[in-house]
Amino acid sequence: MRAFCSKLLISCALTTATSLTFAAVDYPTYPKIDVSHLSASDAAIVKKGEYLAKAGDCIACHTAAHDASAFGGGLGLETPFGAFYSPNITSDDATGIGKWSDKQFLDAVAHGNGPQGNYFPVFPFIYFNKMSDNDLLAIKAYLFAIPKVKRAQVANQVPWPFNIRLAQYGWKLLYFYPYEGKFKADPTQSTEWNRGAYLVEGPGHCGMCHSPLNPLGAEERSHRYTGGFIQGYYAPNITSEGLKDFSIDDIVKVFSADLKPGGGKIQGPMLEVNHDSLMYLTESDHRAIAIYLKSLQFKPAAVKHEAINAQTGEKIYGKYCAGCHANGGGGAPIVGDKADWQARMKDGFSQVLNSAINGVGGMPKMGNCLTCSQAEIQATVQYMVDNSLNSTDAKKPLDYYVMPELSMAQGKALYTQHCAACHQQGLHGAPKLGDVRAWQPLLHDDFDNILTVVLKGKGYSGNHMHPVQGACPTCSTSEIIAATKYLAQESSAGKADYSLW
Ligand code: HEC
Ligand code: HEC
Ligand code: HEC
Ligand code: HEC
Q: pLDDT band at residue 419, thresholds of 50, 70 and 90?
């Protein structure tokens, strides 16, 4: 089963355990084209278009799963806003774009204006907008040279108000028009750098996955390329900061050999991007991309690291760790359980600290506080150890720690940003928001147990699994609690008040 998706689209056709592990991905194949009947110059344009269509990964979205007819559309792209079905972009007159003029094509691909109105940003026209008209028309020439596919459009299943094409105008006003405009080469940079910039900003649409997104699915401009989430995978920071330990050659191998620069094999959505798109690019284009990425100076959203003081440990513990460690959630050693901590301390403090930093068993890396510094984690572990070994009555209830109490409205916003991807439509077997029948048995359980599933994640149970922290590693425990309460409240019979749950 194929499961490509780009950013907003958290999962397409992603319904089985095998597709989650990407073990049995069935990739689309590029059609053979015959250019022998074309003039040399037309053939060259089609060839160039083929290369650029590969760089733009058009095939990934525009080819239905289990469908040999490349570019025939019909792939369901799940987004937090509903399911979109990609259109047929072959040159079939009736069901494809065979009757489209060059202008119509440019309006669609570079400006997001279609015959029926504004396209939804699930179609990465905001990136293709950077491409030159000549390049885009070369893609059109290629699409008109491949076999036609007859395949009617499947209607999108997007709930109101997201289904309104006109509403996309507001979206474009906010997030597209201010940045619209063709790519302009920077004369102070090398030719290679400019080529890399063009590929990354334009056809490659790398930011769709690698940039953090706001709740309406637009890139957070000032933090571009500093990391995003897609289908439960983390698309890492690919700026100079994120890639600082890696050479240009290491980065090239990501694209050409599926090798992670830090070791191991590339997986998930990036593996599909490589397979459908990047592996077809020349080595010099791979290098150009790497050179450009190594120059990016965007910074992740600022994280304030306060100076370590006597309160640091308790504060972080309350915010990030108490969710599991105050009550033993997910098998975590309870703070205050002297015997348990004594046994753990046999190997020394540094060993225990090392487990906290790198994760062990059900203990997530950095206790899920990815924004914490190692010094902060150290202060926190010290606090936990002190309160376990030096006191006979140190076990404190979860609510002892002053975790900021968030409102239902904040819970809703966090839900929309982090959890809706699965829970809005019931993807990956997630119980759907508002599905009272599905939630009834779950809500009978203790809040602590339910929260533990969300915080700690869950391995396969049948085909289902839960991502650690609902795939939001930067969320604090309070934020996860707020999102969980909102989801529970909206899904309970009669929508009881869950704020005090
Ligand atoms: C991330 C997925 C994705 C990628 C990658 C993508 N598209 Fe699309 N495309 C879509 C979706 C979804 C729509 C329909 C949007 C809508 O209905 O508002 C669309 C619409 C279109 C349309 C309008 C067709 C019509 O009948 O209205 C054209 C043309 C098109 N894409 C061409 C391309 C080309 C060329 C590329 C590669 C350079 C490409 N697309 C890459 C998802 C994608
Ligand atoms: C569909 C989403 C998606 C798109 C589009 C995408 N990536 Fe990725 N990328 C990912 C994910 C997810 C990973 C992490 C893969 C893993 O953990 O095995 C990744 C990993 C990487 C890495 C390895 C980083 C590291 O430190 O391990 C690099 C480099 C990279 N991508 C560059 C790019 C570039 C350049 C583009 C555009 C040409 C791009 N990606 C487009 C999702 C995407
Ligand atoms: C999602 C639940 C969860 C959260 C959140 C969590 N932990 Fe843990 N932690 C565990 C579990 C489970 C273990 C036991 C792991 C094992 O021994 O296999 C553990 C073990 C530990 C240990 C003992 C390691 C050892 O070597 O025995 C330390 C120290 C620790 N956690 C610190 C922290 C800190 C600090 C935080 C917050 C920044 C934190 N934990 C957040 C679940 C959690
Ligand atoms: C990648 C998909 C995905 C995301 C993202 C996700 N969930 Fe879930 N969630 C699931 C699945 C699947 C289940 C059912 C797990 C099972 O089969 O036991 C589930 C179950 C739950 C449950 C019921 C737990 C139980 O068994 O008692 C809660 C509560 C929950 N999710 C909250 C959240 C919250 C809050 C977020 C966001 C912070 C979130 N989820 C994000 C997929 C997801």
A: confident
Give Cα separations from 431 to 219, 372, 439, 457 (angstroms): 28, 32, 7, 15
C-alpha R_g of the chain: 25
Element at 228 (helix H, strand E): strand 228-230
Which tokens hold the place of 481? 């609690």
- Condensed to tens digits (0 to 9), the pLDDT of residues 155-174 reads 877 666 566 676 677 777 77
The minimum-distance atom of ligand 1 relative to the CA of 115 is 27
- Provide the pLDDT confidence category of residue 302 given band limits of 50, 70 and 90: low
Determine phi and psi for 386, rounding to 5 degrees: -55, -45
Distance between CA atoms of residues 225 and 488, nearest Å: 33
HSE-up of residue 15 (Cα within 13 Å, Cβ side): 8
Please give the span between the terminal C-alpha atoms of the chain, in angstroms, as a whole number: 40
List CB contacts of 446: < 8 A, sequence separation 6 or more: none
CB 164 within 8 A of CB 115: no
pLDDT tens, position by position, 94-130: 999 999 999 999 999 999 999 988 898 889 999 999 9
| Single-letter amino acid, residue 324 | C
Residues of the chain with pLDDT > 70, as a percent, come to 83
- What is the residue with the minimal CA distance to atom 38 of ligand 4? 470
pLDDT in tens, 265-275: 898 889 999 99
Amino acid at 353: L
| Closest ligand relative to 138 C-alpha | 1
| Ligand 2 centroid from CA 216, angstroms | 22
Mean pLDDT is lowest, of 162-166, 231-235, 348-352, for: 162-166
The alpha carbon of 302 and the centre of ligand 2 are apart by a number of angstroms equal to 22
pLDDT of residue 361: 76
- Find the 265 Cα to ligand 2 centroid distance in Å: 12
Contact in structure between 6 and 76 (CB atoms under 8 Å): no
Q: Which domains does the chain have, with CATH numbers?
A: 17-293 (no CATH), 312-400 (1.10.760.10), 408-491 (1.10.760.10)
The CB of 13 under 6 Å from ligand 4? The reply is: no
**Contacts for 439 with CB less than 8 Å, ≥ 6 apart:** 431, 488, 491, 492
In this structure, are residues 478 and 319 in contact, taking their beta carbons and an 8 Å threshold? Answer: yes
Question: Against a cut of 0.85, is the pTM above it?
Answer: no
Q: Phi first, then psi: what are they for 415, rounded to 5°?
A: -60, -50
Per the CB < 8 A criterion, the answer to whether 88 and 71 are in contact is yes
